[in-house]
Amino acid sequence: MDFDPTLLRAFVAVKETGGFTRAAERLHLTQSAISHQIRKLEEQVGRPLLHRTTRRLTVTEDGEDFLRYATQILDTLDAMTRRFQPSPISGVVRFGVPDNFMGDRLPPLLSQFARGFPAVRMEVCVSMHTDLRAAIRAGELDLAVVMSPPDVVEGTCLRRTQLVWAAAEAFEAPKGASLPLAFFPKPCVNRQVAGSALDLAPLDWHVVFTSASPQGIRAAVLAGLAVTVLTREEVEPGMKIVDGRYGLPPLPSVNFSLIWSENGKTPCACRFGQLILEMPDLPGVEALPQQA
């Protein structure tokens, strides 16, 4: 038995408004049209759904059961319509983000956005060494997540994380020689922060490995070639945190902030930015109050 959603909406409207006249006003129909739809629905069901007297209108026991099912069906149909209706928003979103901000959450985020806004094209730059701030200033990106020291206020603060020195579990510093380090190419914030800290430390060090790829840095560290700087949540099995060892100076925490270009707040970019603001926090990462 297939029920016409139009008839279901008429029945629910009569119940919620308490009468045929107000239901007709809600649905922008005539009272006779509502009466015809209810009569047709009752004929299809094979039993009365409403009890009518000259003074009042009530729902029968069968009507109460039918109302529950009808409401569930209409809620599902409305949700399906919202989910699959064509989006009026189109255009291009140009987004930049460091590798260590989203990790495995970037693909589902992009998939969610693409499902909701199929007419929008995404251009995404995922990199630790690209100067995302410069790209924002130049108008090459609409929005970007950037890393910055906690004393730098910019954009909307998303979360805070601690930088640490990391090495392989079996790493041993060479005796009587400078400490080997692995970094991303400049202008990586990890490298900038580490360099500023090292400049103030009485430590002999040198860069033995450089890679623009996070996989490359991890490979060098796990191979025991060098020490590097990671966020605490990036430290993986086979690595150890070596803060305070080998004369290494302490490192600060850093903020992840969402920044926009001057003309970047297009409707489609704003929708994508809202998804970023709604992302759940990573375990072990301190969420910050959002600032405009």
Largest sheet: 8 strands, mixed
**Spatial shape:** elongated
Tally of DSSP β-strands: 12
Q: What is the share of helical residues?
A: 25-40%
Overall average pLDDT: 90
**Topology order in helix (H) and strand (E) letters:** HHHEEHEHHEHEEEHEHEEEHE
Strand fraction? 15-25%
Distance between the termini: 53 Å
Structural class: alpha/beta
Separate helix tally: 10
Instruction: Indicate the radius of gyration in whole angstroms.
Output: 30 Å
Pfam families: HTH_1, LysR_substrate
Domain HTH lysR-type: 1-60
Keywords: DNA-binding, Transcription, Transcription regulation
GO molecular function: DNA binding; DNA-binding transcription factor activity
What's the structural blueprint in terms of helices and strands?
Layout: H1 5-17, H2 20-27, H3 31-45, E1 50-52, E2 57-59, H4 61-84, E3 91-97, H5 99-102, H6 106-116, E4 120-126, H7 132-137, E5 143-148, E6 156-168, E7 179-183, H8 189-199, E8 205-210, H9 214-222, E9 228-231, E10 239-241, E11 253-260, H10 267-277, E12 286-287
Parallel strand pairs: 3-4, 3-5, 7-8
Antiparallel strand pairs: 1-2, 5-11, 6-9, 6-10, 6-11, 6-12
What does this structure look like?
This protein is an alpha/beta fold and 292 residues long. The chain is built from ten helices and twelve strands. The protein has helices at residues 5-17, 20-27, 31-45, 61-84, 99-102, 106-116, 132-137, 189-199, 214-222, 267-277; strands at residues 50-52, 57-59, 91-97, 120-126, 143-148, 156-168, 179-183, 205-210, 228-231, 239-241, 253-260, 286-287. The strands form three sheets. Strands 3, 4, 5, 6, 9, 10, 11 and 12 form an eight-stranded mixed β-sheet that branches. Strands 1-2 form a two-stranded antiparallel ribbon. The protein has a two-stranded parallel ribbon with strand order 7-8. Helix 1 (5-17) packs across helix 3, helix 1 (5-17) crosses helix 4 (61-84) and helix 2 crosses helix 3 (31-45). The radius of gyration is 30 Å and the shape is elongated. Mean pLDDT is 90; it is low at 287-292.
